[in-house]
Amino acid sequence: MAYEIPVTQARAEFADLINRVVYGGERVVVTRHGKPLVALVSAADLERLDALEEPAEEEIVSSVSKVREPAPAPAAGERQRFGIAAEHRGPGAS
Q1: Element (H or E) spanning 35, and its range?
Q2: Is there a domain that residue 36 lies in?
Q3: Full-model pTM
Q4: How big is the chain by its Cα radius of gyration, in Å?
Q5: pLDDT, tens digit (0-9, with 9 covering 90-100), for 56-87
């Protein structure tokens, strides 16, 4: 559980808060009007958070690379046969 402190009080006690995080292993959440603004965490906690984010980025790249190319536009004869008056053209198409 994190220790919560209003931003006005955090300004006055900043050095003490840093000591609580570094030496006490605490996590401090600074609030304004009762809503969380920022958190003070140790450098080790930050490294662990960064490590958790990396696989998510790889998953996104992997899923994007699996997207297939769109089907080719129907020929003019097919458009007339099915009564298609217009077709979607992607960006860069003329």
Answers
A1: strand 35-40
A2: yes
A3: 0.54
A4: 27
A5: 555 666 665 566 666 666 666 666 666 666 66
CB 41 within 8 A of CB 20: no
Distance CA 93, CA 70 (A): 13
Strands across the sheet containing 35-40? 3-6, 28-32, 35-40
Give the amino acid at 9: Q
CATH number of the domain at 14, please. Answer: 3.40.1620.10
d(CA 43, CA 14): 16
Which of 24, 43, 69, 90 is closest to 3 using CA atoms? 24
Q: The domain containing residue 55 runs over which residues?
A: 3-65
How many folded domains does the chain comprise?
1
Question: What confidence tens digit (pLDDT) does each residue in 18-49 have?
Answer: 999 999 999 999 999 999 999 999 999 989 88
